Amino acid sequence: MSALVDVTVTERDVDVSFEVADGETVALLGPNGAGKSTTLSVLGGLLRPDAGRIVLDGEELTGPGTWVAPHARRTALLAQDPLLFPHLSVLENVAFGPRSTGTGRRAARAAAEHWLAEVDAAELAGRRPAQLSGGQAQRVAVARALAADPRLLLLDEPMAALDVAVAPALRTLLRRVLADRTAVIVTHHVLDALLLADRVVVVEGGRVAEQGPTSEVLSRPRSAFAARFAGLNLVSGVATPDGVRRPDGLLLHGTAATGDHPPPGSPAVAVFRPSAVAVHREPPGGSPRNALAVVVTELEPLGDVVRVRAGELAADVTVASVAELGLAPGSDATFVVKATEVDVYAQ
Amino acid sequence: MSRGGRTRHVGLPRWLFGPALLAAVFVVLPVVAMTTRIAWGDFFSLVSSEAARSALWLSLRTSTASTLLCLVLGIPLATVLARSEARWLGVLRSLVLLPLVLPPVVGGIALLSAFGRQGLLGSELEALGIRIAFSTVAVVLAQTFVSLPFLVVSLEGALRTAGERYDVVAASLGARPTTVLRRVTLPLVLPGLASGAVLAFARSLGEFGATITFAGSLEGTTRTLPLLIYNLRVTDADAAVAMSLVLVAVAVLVIGLVRPRGAL
């Protein structure tokens, strides 16, 4: 069941447009306040857009003169908190959707049992939500959403409120149940995008900054947010024959790793991995082609390396190097990256 | 917030206990003093007289009826006030609280002006053969008038505290607004609803001013327990004190019903 979204919410300065193909999971990415949750609310019918339309499976849910009430949309919502009804048992919670849409008591119970088994929570059927751990409750919430037989599943950061220890198990579960389902997931986690989403839509400042297949967007990002999300450095500007020139005049040398070099003068980006960046305190001799004078803004441990952030740019260096160079927020430094490590492509 | 919580992290100033004790004594002392005035020898014959039994029975019946009426009218009103965003509801919210601040006698006069024979709707009701003033129905209406705000305020507060997040999830699962209200919204605020209903019942039980103004004091029809006590106070002080104790007992029972929920 495919979905077509093209909506404007003036009050929140959101104007987005994207499509979800049948059986596809689309991840909405973007900084806080970019309009992701607003988009989800509009899809669920909780917020009425000022203009635009939403078409689900050929049926117009929202449009000029059309308004389908939230309960009639069959767009089940899975939120950050499980929000299990505290006065109902786990089984009754999962049976809530079928019961509400007119399924008989016995059939609803059977459906609830089926979906509880599907999320490996059959043994929790008789419990009260208060007797569940966070991970168990969210699994039951997944079963409850699926039992409602949604045409479109809306997930609003479903892993955000979970312990880091239980999030991977739920992610695995969602990967299984979302496999052939039409769904939109809002997330801040790169693993969610990689494992759950077929395509990503990057929303920045209420507009779609870029969209495309997950692997493509995360390996060759075109927006600053997607680059940061994928852990890559991105410099945008205009193409020159040998690289990309930033608006401030700095030229970053690089070449197109695949395909053609973008025509000179056209908007282009230069992308390189933080691990390809060498950090120096003094401008190094031998005039390397790409030397960027920066001020360190943040140090962040990342496995066995330290990510040195300088504004939008990042470099991964060993702990020993950080100590040797005496790096700290506020330090002047030079980021050096070989031209062969810089991928250049059209924005 | 938890009911079983015993730890207190911030100490109370010691001087607070003085006025707190004084307040408790101020409330309890008069009630205790009243029990010392009771002629225990005649107590049971006094409280089991025909007039006493009929007044108690009338009080219980009318208070139950008005509590039910409060529920029927108050649940929708509280829900609309708590969930709707229309601007004019602010004004309505203030108006609904009016009976809380009005002297009950004024409430009785207002009710007479609306439903009395000479009142706004009097002739229409008369044409339908309905006479409300000075009947048991009038007692129920007077009690409902003064009790409704207790239920509405209590329930609206509970609804606002519960929030709309569960309602949103229920709707997304396909539940119609009526189903959401019945299966999610109201069950979640049941403690608030119960304490509101008990408060409304207690207020109805003690209602005096509006009742005597709008319904009069006819034995068996409109003379509820408070009205009987007021009557007896002049003619038979012993009986008045004895009946007061009965009313205190019923009130204590009602408080006992609601107190464990801690939602007052």
TrEMBL record, chain A:
PROSITE patterns: ABC_TRANSPORTER_1, ABC_TRANSPORTER_2, MOP. Transmembrane segments: none annotated. InterPro entries: AAA+_ATPase, ABC_SmlMolc_Importer, ABC_transporter-like_ATP-bd, ABC_transporter-like_CS, Mo/tungstate-bd_C_term_dom, Mop_domain, P-loop_NTPase, Transp-assoc_OB_typ1. SUPFAM superfamilies: MOP-like, P-loop containing nucleoside triphosphate hydrolases. Keywords: ATP-binding, Nucleotide-binding. GO terms for molecular function: ATP binding; ATP hydrolysis activity. It comes from the Bacteria. One of its GO terms (biological process) is molybdate ion transport. PANTHER family: SPERMIDINE/PUTRESCINE IMPORT ATP-BINDING PROTEIN POTA (PTHR42781), SPERMIDINE_PUTRESCINE IMPORT ATP-BINDING PROTEIN POTA (PTHR42781:SF4). This is Molybdenum transport ATP-binding protein ModC. It comes from Nocardioides simplex. The lineage of its organism: Bacteria, Bacillati, Actinomycetota, Actinomycetes, Propionibacteriales.
From TrEMBL, chain B:
The chain crosses the membrane at residues 20-40, 60-82, 94-116, 128-155, 184-202, 239-258. The keyword Acyltransferase does not apply. It is found in: Cell membrane. InterPro entries: MetI-like, MetI-like_sf, ModB_ABC, NifC_ABC_porter. SUPFAM superfamilies: MetI-like. GO terms for molecular function: molybdate ion transmembrane transporter activity. The keyword Transport applies. Coiled coil: none annotated. GO terms for cellular component: plasma membrane. It is a multi-pass membrane protein. Keywords: Cell membrane, Membrane, Molybdenum, Transmembrane, Transmembrane helix, Transport. Belongs to the binding-protein-dependent transport system permease family. CysTW subfamily. Part of the binding-protein-dependent transport system for molybdenum; probably responsible for the translocation of the substrate across the membrane. This is Molybdenum transport system permease. It comes from Nocardioides simplex (Arthrobacter simplex). The lineage of its organism: Bacteria, Bacillati, Actinomycetota, Actinomycetes, Propionibacteriales.
